[in-house]
Amino acid sequence: NAGVTQTPKFQVLKTGQSMTLQCAQDMNHNSMYWYRQDPGMGLRLIYYSASEGTTDKGEVPNGYNVSRLNKREFSLRLESAAPSQTSVYFCASRGLAGGPSVETQYFGPGTRLLVL
Amino acid sequence: RKEVEQDPGPFNVPEGATVAFNCTYSNSASQSFFWYRQDCRKEPKLLMSVYSSGNEDGRFTAQLNRASQYISLLIRDSKLSDSATYLCVVNLGFKTIFGAGTRLFVKA
């Protein structure tokens, strides 16, 4: 199992450019999440998808859109990038953690985005 | 008030020391609890789940007190490789809430 994969690993954008961050999981998890993490800061939830076909806003959704393409894939789109969106973006999926009815999150390796 | 609050850190300890991290959560409806570890510039990884009965994994012991809404992590015999940020994590419905993390530096 690859777990959670993210592409690209690194990206440099100019202000106003658009891009899509890709995320896929092969663990058959229902829920998927997008976070951003700024230097020295904690994780902030951008959007999440509790199941295929549903998406909901998290703590910091402005400037982002998401698509839950199927059960495996959850993409994050920046329509018009701004320097404030410079960050590390983590995708995660949530599934059983070994205990009965105990689910936890498994993260991808992250995408490092710089917006100039 | 933050939903999950942790010791601000950083903790600087010598090898072999015992170190304890504390965490409180604000929502009594929280369902499950975890400690994650995050190395510099890497993704967070599950360290261990936390149960009311307490649980141990080698040098790591986690405790949960639901009445006080308090979670702890004890690391015994610290190793250089334990240097990382430790995140207290709580599940609430479909959301998973992460604390800001406590940085640990273990020095030779």
Describe what this molecule looks like in 3D.
The complex is a heterodimer of chains A (116) and B (108). With 116 residues, chain A is mainly beta. Chain A is built from no helices and eleven strands. Chain A is globular, with a radius of gyration of 14 Å. Chain A starts with a strand and ends with a strand. Chain B is an all-beta fold and 108 residues long. Chain B has strands at 4-6, 11-14, 19-25, 32-38, 45-50, 55-57, 60-65, 70-75, 84-92, 95-98, 102-107. The N and C termini of chain B lie far apart (37 Å). The mean pLDDT of chain B is 93. At the A-B interface, β5, β9 and β10 of A face β5, β9 and β10 of B.
Write the topology of this structure.
The complex is a heterodimer of chains A (116) and B (108).
Chain A: E1 4-7, E2 10-13, E3 19-25, E4 31-37, E5 43-49, E6 56-57, E7 64-68, E8 74-78, E9 87-96, E10 103-107, E11 111-115
Parallel strand pairs in A: 2-11
Antiparallel strand pairs in A: 1-3, 3-8, 4-5, 4-9, 5-6, 7-8, 9-10, 9-11
Chain B: E1 4-6, E2 11-14, E3 19-25, E4 32-38, E5 45-50, E6 55-57, E7 60-65, E8 70-75, E9 84-92, E10 95-98, E11 102-107
